[in-house]
Write a structure and sequence with these properties.
The protein is of the alpha+beta class. It has helices at residues 2-12, 30-42, 131-150, 180-184, 196-200, and strands spanning 22-28, 45-49, 58-64, 71-80, 89-97, 105-113, 118-119, 127-128, 155-163, 194-195, 230-232. The strands form 3 sheets. The protein has a 6-stranded mixed β-sheet. Strand 7 (118-119) and strand 8 (127-128) form a beta hairpin. The protein is globular.
Length: 237
């Protein structure tokens, strides 16, 4: 829709104080990509995407490459998850940030859409909650990131972004997912992962939706944080 394209353009426009270097996108449909990707190119972005069937959706990463202080893409790809019924995976980009020689920095940026809830599956009246699949997927993404970094000493930080569908922060009841950072750090055995939002704004809740005011959401969570930004290692901020 043209209104949505205008909103995206305003975020990425040159009139903004600073343009984001990386933009993680989820639920990108082929019709949306045909409108969105040319817009992104006009704003200096190069897009990396998984293969998306015409009647489905997937993830993409936009990288600001045509600007001072932008990034140079070194490598990119798509990691399909081994445990998914929804074609989920991690779109990743290995990039060098602005500067030359000792002033340049390499990062690994990824975006993902973890397994979703699905009502009336596999049978009417049953619910597929995807909790075991989400945990398997985030660990698969973590293992990929850490293995990738271990082979490339120049990478100083890695980020996993996206729609994680993670249900671990309800205020009035326990969610169905274990705490995200506990899963990532092996319950304390590996504490190099942090929530970049919490590190940067420790006093801000950072909720990304409120089901009470969003008519598109059928769930009853008051608020929840699904778009987390785990970062690795600890000193990446």
């Amino acid at each position: 829709p043209s209104a949505r394209m205008e909103r995206i353009a305003s975020i990425l426009s040159t009139s903004a104080p600073s343009k984001p270097i990386f933009v993680g996108l989820q639920e990108v449909t082929p019709p949306l990509s045909r409108s969105l990707f040319p817009l992104l190119r006009s704003e200096g972005y190069e897009t990396v995407s998984q293969d998306i069937p015409e009647n489905s959706y997937g993830c993409s990463v936009a990288v600001l490459t045509c600007a001072v202080g932008g990034a140079e893409i070194i490598a990119s790809g798509f990691l399909p998850y081994s445990r998914t019924i929804m074609g989920r995976g991690l779109v990743w980009v290995h990039a060098k940030l602005g500067g030359t020689g000792n002033d340049s920095r390499e990062v690994l940026f990824g975006t993902t859409h973890l397994e979703s809830f699905m009502r009336n599956y596999p049978r009417p009246g049953q619910t597929y909650d995807g909790a075991k699949e989400r945990e398997s997927q985030i660990l698969e993404a973590k293992d990929f990131v850490q293995s990738f970094m271990s082979k490339r000493a120049g990478i100083k930080a890695a980020f996993i972004t996206g729609d994680l569908n993670w249900d671990d922060e309800r205020k009035r009841s326990a969610g169905i997912d274990r705490p995200l950072l506990s899963v990532l750090d092996g319950d304390g055995r590996d504490s190099k992962w942090v929530d970049a939002w919490r590190e940067a704004w420790p006093n801000a809740e950072g909720y990304t939706y409120d089901s009470r005011v969003n008519p598109m959401l059928e769930v009853t969570f008051e608020e929840d944080l699904t778009d987390a930004l785990p970062a690795f290692p600890e000193n990446c901020m």
